[in-house]
UniProtKB/TrEMBL annotation:
<dbReference type="InterPro" id="IPR037522">
    <property type="entry name" value="HD_GYP_dom"/>
</dbReference>
<dbReference type="InterPro" id="IPR003607">
    <property type="entry name" value="HD/PDEase_dom"/>
</dbReference>
<dbReference type="GO" id="GO:0009214">
    <property type="term" value="P:cyclic nucleotide catabolic process"/>
</dbReference>
<dbReference type="Pfam" id="PF13487">
    <property type="entry name" value="HD_5"/>
</dbReference>
<protein>
    <recommendedName>
        <fullName>HD-GYP domain-containing protein</fullName>
    </recommendedName>
</protein>
<feature type="domain" description="HD-GYP">
    <location>
        <begin position="155"/>
        <end position="348"/>
    </location>
</feature>
<dbReference type="GO" id="GO:0004112">
    <property type="term" value="F:cyclic-nucleotide phosphodiesterase activity"/>
</dbReference>
């Protein structure tokens, strides 16, 4: 099932996500993308080629996510050169000082490449170097990609690869809850199937479930992986993770629903959750499914300060939340049925 998403904005969000994960890399990727796009424009690439150039240089370092798109050799050559230049600029604030050194390097090493001449011409303009400074980069790239709204179908295979990538990023950071997002997604999909939701709805729910804790990338690793209970201050910081999840995906055309469903996973029906304090009016069926799947998966997982709970204990927790008007009773009933039927399946 293809999902309609503005892939350009998704690419920006993934780039921001990498920024939360590894600050230095983000600037590097932005620089690489900007150089590649300038060069592509100078070489008069077609719109489709420019779009692919953008996706590959901004997010897809290993060419894994969008590998089904047709990419010609010239695009790889452009990205290769942009990468070399951006690499020479690492940890430099003022780029123009390195102009002569980089030009000499390109002539010495890569003068046989067809695109080097065009790149050297671009480098003659002072503006090329000033544009690579951090404060202008994002806006400039945004300007270059404006009007690309048509680039908005994410094929099922691409979505899967984006899912795997995101899950891996979270896993690498949050050691205590390894594979948590995948478990939540699995259970949320099961609940949705029981509810006979459409295929498209289910694939959106799955995506939102994978994303729900992505905001944890903004939380210091020390807090995420702390053995034992968090202090009050640490818990307050921890509470920002659904806020970051929301922020990361807020502006992506086509992802408005997914952003809400994922960003609201710690909200409650009675308005007592966090961080937006929305209540049942704003909690769609899909958001409620992810909430219940998240709680269920979390209590069935081991934590450093407690053992995983068994099905009877999980049901007790869910029922108490229903009585207190925190989560949806109908969805809990379905979840209990799934848990009882599959008692032998370990969620942790
Ligand atoms: Fe969470
Ligand atoms: Fe979670």
């Amino acid at each position: 099932m293809a999902l309609s998403i503005n892939v350009a904005s998704l690419a920006f969000s993934l780039n921001r996500t990498f920024g939360l994960y590894e600050k230095q890399d983000r600037l590097h990727l932005l620089r690489r993308t900007f150089i590649a796009l300038q060069l592509g424009r100078k070489l008069q690439l077609s719109k489709e080629e420019m779009e692919n150039l953008f996706l590959y240089s901004l997010v897809d370092e290993e060419h894994l996510l969008f590998k089904d798109r047709k990419v010609m050799g010239q695009i790889f050559e452009i990205i290769f050169l942009a990468e070399k230049v951006a690499d020479k600029l690492r940890r430099r604030k003022v780029c123009i000082f390195t102009k002569n050194k980089i030009k000499k390097y390109l002539i010495d090493e890569y003068k046989e490449m067809g695109t080097v001449c065009a790149l050297l011409e671009l480098m003659e303009k002072e503006a090329f170097w000033f544009n690579l400074e951090e404060e202008f980069l994002f806006l400039d790239i945004l300007k270059l990609t404006m009007g690309w709204e048509k680039l908005n179908i994410l094929a099922e295979e691409e979505l899967k690869r984006v899912n795997v990538l995101i899950a891996k990023l979270i896993d690498n950071k949050d050691l205590l809850t390894r594979r948590h997002s995948q478990r939540v997604a699995k259970l949320a999909v099961k609940i949705s199937e029981e509810l006979k939701l459409s295929k498209e709805q289910i694939s959106k729910i799955e995506f939102a479930s994978i994303l729900h804790d992505i905001g944890k990338l903004a939380i210091p690793t020390k807090i995420l992986n702390k053995p034992g209970k968090l202090t009050e201050v640490e818990f307050l910081l921890m509470k920002s993770h659904p806020f970051y999840t929301f922020k990361l995906f807020e502006d992506i055309g086509g992802l408005e629903d997914i952003c809400k469903w994922a960003g609201y996973h710690h909200e409650k029906l009675d308005g007592s959750g966090y961080p937006f304090k929305v209540n049942e009016k704003d909690l769609d069926l899909e958001a409620r499914i992810i909430q219940v799947a998240d709680i269920t998966a979390a209590v069935m997982e081991k934590r450093s300060y407690r053992n995983p709970m068994n099905v009877a204990q999980v049901i007790e927790i869910l029922e108490t939340d229903v009585q207190n008007h925190k989560i949806d009773g109908d969805i809990v009933r379905i979840t209990e049925k799934i848990l009882k039927e599959r008692e032998e399946i370990q969620l942790y």
